[in-house]
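User: structure tokens for this one?
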Amino acid sequence: MKKRINVFVLTIKNSHREHIIRKRLNFLKINHKFFYAIDGRSPNNFKILYNKYNKKKCLNILGRDMTYPEISNAEGHLRIYKYIVKKKILNAVIMEDDCYPSKTLCDWLNLEYFFCKKEYDIIQIYHSSGLVYKKPLEVILNKFYLYKTCFTLPYTTCYQITKKACKYILNRNKKISRLADWPVNFYDGKLKQFIVLPRLTSLHFNHLNTSHNIEVWKKFVKVEKIKKFVPFYNIMTALYFLLHIPLLLREYKDYSYYKEKYLLPKIFFIKDLLSNKYINLKNISKNKMFY
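Assistant:
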């Protein structure tokens, strides 16, 4: 029997989301292993999570405290990385419980033989926005297209990661000080990030109502609505970050994080307006070439 890529799922034990993702994976006949996050909504777990958290470092990098659900999510991903390193697993797919895998993911999981020979640190299987370089690096079985990201895409809904990348992240995160997506900077080239097209997973249709970070999603939805009514919103926000105003206002103190999270995406946003070298992932669902 052909060996498949390992699949690990991060969820909250006995949650509604656990039931949904288990049902879907069983339907697709995808073997998987659950990892249970420490429930960040329960006050009984606050002390446990706080002991795993570096508040001072986090405030310096993010400019704010992490919530307990955010600490829980980051801890869960790091625990899976430790398992991958311990078990010497070369490649693994990690998904969160709001992921909704397609049937095509089953074909991707059969590519274990391919990724044993070629190393791609992190491949975003789920993605909804961002820019990638237009020329694919690999075309696998005339079916899957791999692209290099222009800047770091912040998604841990579903991704593939190597043992090497897990080691790198773990060595720099003895305690939690950054979000699960991602606790290291990629722009220095130590780790490389890629995406696969066509998209093999989506978010479950009910992910908003079942989210443990509902306020984060509400804020995202609110910003998307504002964009529709404010002319040149993207250009104005790009200038805001390109002029380093948040740094001048001391909203952020760590320049490396600022460059990774805000500056590089805005630089490439401007480049994309002036060239035709990139694929905008936000528009990809409209492109029949991939579907």
